[in-house]
Amino acid sequence: MPGQFDCDECRYGISTKDGAYRTPPRRDDAERAAMHCGWTPEEYWTGAGCVGKTFAAKPSVGFPGIEWTEDECPGSATRSPAVVEIGEAYAAFDAGALREFFPDVTNSVAQGLLELKRAMSEYERVATATLKEASKNSG
Description:
By secondary structure, the chain is mostly helical. It has helices spanning 7-12, 29-34, 74-77, 81-94, 98-101, 107-138; strands at residues 54-56, 65-67. The protein has 6 helices and 2 strands, in the order ααββαααα. β1 (54-56) and β2 (65-67) form a beta hairpin. The protein is globular and about 40 Å long.
């Protein structure tokens, strides 16, 4: 199942294996303009966008959400080239192969990688504490 900020589903609908779309887009142009969709030209953006909204990573199991502080919708923000490159660097780092895939790591990628590692560690800490609390309360 795609994430709640899957750009293709939001813009086009849910696709089938053959590439055809079987549902209408999740959001219309006005809704995407109000969310400050990165695929919508900024001159069409309305309102405050997604700033101040809280998005839960795993609402079904009670993981706490984060307050979004950026102007642009989280879906298109996560597809920016810099964010994608940092995600790829993190995967290589996590597999112990950073130098093989990124022999000339730039400072911005290194800083992004360290920030993502910090955020992932915090996410894992909160997730573990949340699951422990849920387990304690259910048993």
